Amino acid sequence: TNNLADFQWKNRLVIVFDDQQDNGLYQEQIAVLNVDLAGLKERKLLLFQISDDKISDQFSNHYSDELLTDIKKLKKDKSPFEILLIGLDGGVKLRSTSLVPQKNLFALIDGMPMRRAEMKDQKL
Fold it and tell me: What's the pTM value of the predicted model, to 2 decimals?
């Protein structure tokens, strides 16, 4: 996968930026999201960690510099910590510089029309 467009209509993305790896918020956010891996998978969520000019996902896969460049363009805040949710359509659905509880993230996604259609198809 070389750029953000490769994920469109396949995955929702949660991107956690952290300019300082020792930032407790970063570790806490990753831990909060990794609590329910089945829930992440069910919602087609990929979790990207951006730190020290490196990109990795929750499976420790590494990606191209082009994808890193694409993702870094999305960072708007000067804060060292920022979390983004990218929808299936490629749009930014959430942007926060504070910890986002998993239930809030899942509730936001579950309220989206495409997710509701998925849930109806899966009879959830």
Answer: 0.89
pLDDT at 2 over 80: no
Beta-carbon contacts of residue 7 (< 8 Å; ≥ 6 apart): 1, 13, 46, 86, 90
DSSP the chain: --SGGGGTTT-EEEEEEESSTT-HHHHHHHHHHHTTHHHHHHTTEEEEEEETTEEEETT--B--HHHHHHHHTT---SSSEEEEEE-TTS-EEEEESS---HHHHHHHHHTSHHHHHHHHHHT-
* Strands 45-51 vs 12-18: parallel, antiparallel or unpaired: parallel
pLDDT digits (tens, 9 = 90+) for 7-55: 999 999 999 998 775 668 888 998 999 899 999 999 999 999 888 788 8
Instruction: Flag whether pLDDT at 59 surpasses 80.
Output: no
> Which residues partner with 14 through β-bridges?
47, 85
Dihedral through CA 55, CA 57, CA 59, CA 62, nearest 10?
-30
Tokens of 114: 């495409």
